[in-house]
Amino acid sequence: xxxxxxxxxxxxxxxxxxxxxxxxxxxxxxxxxxxxxxxxxxxxxxxxxxxxxxxxxxxxxxxxxxxxxxxxxxxxxxxxxxxxxxxxxxxxxxxxxxxxxxxxxxxxxxxxxxxxxxxxxxxxxxxxxxxxxxxxxx
Length: 138
Description:
It is built from 2 helices and 11 strands; from the N terminus they run αββββββββαβββ. A hairpin with a 2-residue loop joins strand 7 (75-78) and strand 8. The protein has helices at 3-8, 96-99; strands at residues 12-17, 22-24, 28-31, 40-45, 51-52, 54-56, 75-78, 81-84, 101-106, 118-124, 130-137. It folds into 2 domains: 3-56; 75-137, no CATH class. It starts with a helix and ends with a strand.
């Protein structure tokens, strides 16, 4: 098999989409064609090339293997914002936006204000924003 054959052979993958023309995993692909209808997990034809296309516009379950090796943080999810355990938050509500980070893809059913015995797993992209929140039992 030549390198051209490897580039052209596609593999179906469930990847998170955050509203841009790219999807990311261990590498990035530019989306050719239609974009998904909203932020979430979708099936893409992720080939060895630089482009991918959406295979199914319906939402898919979160891929538990996605984000392995990514930086993980502990903290609280407040609506669609993340507050890290490592920061001291000023109680002034006007400063909340300055002290938190947006989360673009929240797992369905995730409690938005509870902490208890849960760990929020959030991943940083190369551009900085937190992208995915899911809960793991300690």
